[in-house]
Design goal:
globular, 10-stranded antiparallel sheet, catalase activity, membrane, single chain, alpha+beta, heme binding, Catalase HpII,  Chain A, domain 1, 7 helices
């Protein structure tokens, strides 16, 4: 998977951004990556991947060789053990094989690779399942339950609202409150973030896929779903993050020394009328939830030379039996991840003179 004979290269993967919620006095990271339409050349007014990646660099600072978002992270590896519950809904081999290898990555939602672990209340978890038939399933999940906005255009407006003023180097304090006031769809996210606190461990978090997809069975029947993973650790409730900059990776390594870490993969089936193509909307009421299997992590690696560094966790890399919804953020994420990936791979030589990622 990784050519260890070549010079060290930067981690290559997902994205995210930091938003200052001036109205409630906290700094919050909004995860999901840089968004743009897949083909921006169709309409001069359409957002392009490079436009949003440029905006992320403006807001987060430019750190050559690193992801434009989720820049600080750690690689993990293990396997997925399937259960029978998802098999009637999807023909994907990941749900029929007893065990599927996985490579993953935990990260902070920030474009700054030196951000303190306690600076944001959100953690992210990206996975690549390598199926026996050669297909792959890649997914990026976050510890928040919902995304603040539902379109790439609104996401770009949010980026501009939080951009630093060239004269002061700081965002306009009125920018984010004004944005949220003009976008009522952000209410569910704001309600969650007001009580969210940084956790002390990656291992105690529940991670949500947020976007909807379709499971497709052998007969061609399609079922809209959202998925997420729930920790099975004894202290799954977690604790508030301690003071300091780099405790998450150390905590993860210590836990893995004691034994594998496990999460249950829950697949929530959409009810009729649920919003399938808008990640800013919750699915209210009772829903059927499938226990699709158990995710088992056995080891971790530093991101600079770990197996996850060269993986672009594109959410549209899907196996037969899983299909994308029409959520515009999915195509947007895919396009922007590719743009960010190309930038990072062209900046490898600059990493050698950059500070180490453990810098406070």
């Amino acid at each position: 998977m990784v050519d260890h004979s070549s010079p060290p290269r930067p981690p290559l993967s997902t994205a995210s951004l930091i938003i200052r919620l001036a109205s409630i006095g906290v700094v919050v990271a909004v995860v999901a990556g840089a968004f743009a339409y897949v083909n921006g050349s169709l309409d001069p007014q359409r957002l392009r991947p490079k436009t949003l990646v440029n905006a992320l660099e403006t807001n987060n600072g430019l750190h050559p060789g690193y992801r434009r978002n989720h820049a600080k992270g750690v690689c993990v590896a293990g396997y997925f053990e399937s259960s029978p519950e998802a098999r009637q809904y999807s023909s994907a081999q990941v749900f029929s094989e007893a065990r599927t290898p996985i490579i993953g990555r935990f990260a902070l939602p920030s474009g700054n690779p030196y951000a303190p672990d306690s600076s944001v209340p959100i953690r992210s978890f990206a996975l690549q399942f390598s199926l026996a038939n050669g297909q792959q399933w890649r997914t990026g999940m976050n510890s928040m339950p919902v995304f603040p906005v539902g379109t790439p255009e609104a996401f770009f407006e949010m980026l501009k609202a939080g951009a630093p003023d060239p004269a002061t180097g700081k965002p306009n304090p009125a920018g984010m409150p004004a944005f949220f006031a003009s976008h009522p769809e952000t209410a569910p996210f704001l309600a969650w973030v007001k009580t969210a606190k940084p956790s002390a461990s990656y291992a105690t978090e529940t991670y949500n896929g947020i976007n909807a997809f379709y499971l497709v069975n052998a007969s061609g029947q399609r079922q809209a779903v959202r998925w997420g993973v729930v920790p099975q650790s004894q202290d799954a409730a977690g604790a508030t993050a301690p003071a300091g900059s780099d405790f998450l990776e150390k905590d993860l390594a210590q836990r893995l020394v004691a034994g594998p870490l496990r999460w249950q993969l829950n697949v929530t089936l959409a009810n009729p009328g649920d919003p399938v193509d808008d990640a800013s909307k919750t699915w209210a009421g009772e829903h059927k939830v499938l226990n699709a299997g158990t995710l088992v992590l056995e080891s971790s690696q530093p991101q600079m030379d770990g197996d996850c560094r060269d993986i672009n966790f594109d959410p549209l890399v899907l196996p037969s039996g899983i299909e994308a919804s029409n959520d515009p953020l999915l195509a947007a994420r895919s396009a922007a991840y590719a743009s960010s990936y190309l930038r990072r791979t062209s900046e490898v030589s600059q990493l050698h003179s950059a500070p180490q990622e453990s810098k406070p």
